[in-house]
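Sorry to interrupt, but I need a hand with the structure work. Please put the record directly below this note.
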Amino acid sequence: MELKNMVSVVARTGRHLQRYNNIGRRLVVGCIPYRFTGSNQACLEDEETLEVLVISSQRKGKGMLFPKGGWESDESIKEAALRETVEEAGVSGIVEGVLGKWIFKTKSQDDAYNEGYMFPLLVTEQLDFWPEKDTRQRIWLSVADAKEVCMHWWMKEALDLLVTRLQSSQQSDEEEVRPLSLP
C-alpha cells in the first residue's frame, strides 16, 4: 500500500489542553487554504485565478466553512492552525502571517464568545486520506462562491483580507520589476 498523501494521525479531541484568553474566551485558530489556478501558479492574476478550500460543517446541513479549531497549550499558534487544517481538510502547506483576530459567539452557549485568529495557507499538498475524511466534504471554490456558502461572517471578512493582501503583494511585485523610464 502506498503511503504518499496520507496522514496517520487521529484528530485531537477534548479540551484538556485548550487555551483561553485572560477573560475566559476560548482561543480558536484556522486557515484559509488557497491555490492559484491561472497560468502563473505563484501569483494572483485576478480574483478568478484564486481558489479557496471550504469544508462542510460536522453538523449536517449547517453549511460550509474554513478549517478551524482550538489552539492547544502544547503548540504554537501556527502549528495549531496547520494541525486543524490537516485534520479537517486534508491539506498542508505554508502558513502565512495572521489575517486578523475576531470575537464571535460560540455555537454551544448563547452568552459565550470565542477569540479567533485566521491565517492564509498556501497549499502545497492535498492528502488522499486525513483524520476527518469520513465526516467532512471539501471543495475548491472561487472567492465569490466561497463567500456565498461560508456560514460565518468573520470568515468572510478574513477571506476579503486575504484577497486584499494577495492583490497588494502582487502590485508591489509589479512595481519592483517595472523598468525606469529615461527622459
Observations:
- The first helix runs from residue 77 to 89.
